[in-house]
Amino acid sequence: MSLKVFLLYWAALACHVSLVFASVDDYDLDLAHFAISAQENATCTVEPRSAKEVAGVLNILGSRKTPFGIKGGGHNLNRGFSSTSGVLISMTRLNSLKYDEKTSTVEVGTGMIWDDVYAQLQDKNVSVIGARATGVGVAGFIIAGGGYSYKTNQYGLAADNVLAIEIVLPSGVIKNISSKQDKDLFFAVRGGGNNFGIVTKMTLRVHPQTAVWGGTIIYPNTVFTTVSSALLDYTAKNVDPKTGLQCTFASLQGQGIIMVNLFYDAPSPPPELFRSFLNITSISSDVKTRSYLSMIQSANTDLTAGVRGIYNTISHTEVTAPLLAAMQNETNYYSARLQSSGLLLNGYVVEPFLPEAYKKGDTDTAYPPNRAENIHPMNIYYAWVNAGSDSSLFEVSRNTAASLQQFAANQGILASAKYPNYSIFNTDLKDMYGRNLKRLQEVKRRVDPKDIMGLTGGFKL
């Protein structure tokens, strides 16, 4: 046990806080991230089991100005955002779930991942608005950006469906907040990052859930024009809020592919809705009627788990043929030039949403700052295996995003806000939060005057 760990342990005892110091096995699990490049070796990890224990830990760390990290699912690809070389607070033991059928709500511990939330609600024929990828943590998904779902067209972002939050303030005070209890802090926490304290519990609105229809179709690069036409037709004509779609132009180990995730929130879609995609010759397809949990876990989002990686993003207001061609060109250009860097995959994801998606639920949230704008977030993802390539691949990620941003601006389709959950570590706060930034900073000054949360990672206000 290091001196720092020893001092922390005895400070915990003095404050009558019960802590679990991780064993060797638990330590490795606590550190683990989706991208190994985002992982750091912490001095130690602690696993609090209640808001009271979180408060005790935060008081100790704050009083000693000890750097710390807060980790839920570990899906943030920015190094230092949910990792640290200091003390890592692993939220894994805050994993309770309490469903209330009468109020159509569920109380969820922030150490849970969305897979487990979906699984526990499945036999009750209800679900929540959460992540589309497997293994994503509940808290970071909502706190760090707001959260897009397959069901966002129907019900809004995940943050729009949060009814109440239990948060440990930087002072150590445990507080319950909602739209009626400290509405400014409630606004800030939903999408404004971990600048305001540590969230330990959320009350979420639940919605009816039947079997769904969907899955992933993988096409060869040779049908790019046909897939693009199908995508453009879909975005131009679709008004059905039960739909969800992601289209990825990618290169996997130098082989160009197109991946389309189709979703319909019912056992089968209207026959014509996705017919143009289904009629294109594909490499593989697992589209079928299935449970919502199966839909989440069937996607290829964990294909590159455990390697190095980074996200970046732009946002656009329309899906156009020139933009799709530009995305494909960026994919091919960098794939051809980066094989010696250990590039495993690069992908550019189109995620179209209906304008009505931004008008559902409680819309007073940190992100997006302008809900009158129809934002389509683009996920730019690079995965590689060589640790020595980190800096150069980060630079590639910035360059390709800048190129597409300029292209979208020239086309008159650039949206005003970048999605924080996809944003690279040096993204300007104004580019994500726009006119909401001033309000966020005011809340930060009020609840954290000593900047205790400045000891942890993330986008800092």
Automatic annotation (TrEMBL):
It comes from the Eukaryota. It holds the Pfam family BBE. Residues 38-209 form the FAD-binding PCMH-type domain. InterPro entries: BBE, FAD-bd_PCMH, FAD-bd_PCMH-like_sf, FAD-bd_PCMH_sub1, FAD-bd_PCMH_sub2, FAD-linked_Oxidoreductase, Oxid_FAD_bind_N. Residues 1-22 form the signal peptide. The keyword Signal applies. PROSITE patterns: FAD_PCMH (PS51387), PROKAR_LIPOPROTEIN (PS51257). Keywords: FAD, Flavoprotein, Oxidoreductase, Signal. The keyword Membrane does not apply. GO terms for molecular function: FAD binding; oxidoreductase activity. Belongs to the oxygen-dependent FAD-linked oxidoreductase family. This is FAD-binding PCMH-type domain-containing protein.
